[in-house]
From TrEMBL:
This is Transcriptional regulator. InterPro entries: WH-like_DNA-bd_sf, WH_DNA-bd_sf. It comes from Natrinema saccharevitans.
Length: 100
């Protein structure tokens, strides 16, 4: 479980999505925390979003992805990663560039 949490947090897109769910549930997957995932992205990033990032978070149970609606909501295991997310959020100013 700890390895899953750190793997989920290892990518900036996944971190921002999970952090955004602390305050806004559901979350539109086309925009997370004001960062567009759609228009300006190159095809490779879009592919990674839909075939790597979102499915990985679903597999870990941290999100439920409603593809037709284009939204994600907190998954059944979200509370397992919540303490790490809150720690990151509380210490955002102390973290190196690129976090979250």
């Amino acid at each position: 479980m700890v390895d899953d949490a750190f793997d989920a947090l290892a990518d900036g897109h996944r971190r921002r999505l999970l952090l955004s769910l602390l305050d806004h549930n559901p979350q539109d997957v086309s925009t997370v925390d004001g960062i567009p995932w759609k228009v300006a992205e190159i095809d490779e990033e879009l592919t990674r979003k839909y075939h790597v990032h979102l499915p990985k978070l679903v597999d870990y149970g941290y999100i439920e992805w409603h593809r037709d609606a284009g939204t994600v909501v907190k998954g059944p295991q979200f509370d397992e990663i919540r303490p790490l997310l809150e720690l990151l959020d509380d210490h955002r100013d102390e973290l190196p560039d690129g976090w979250p």
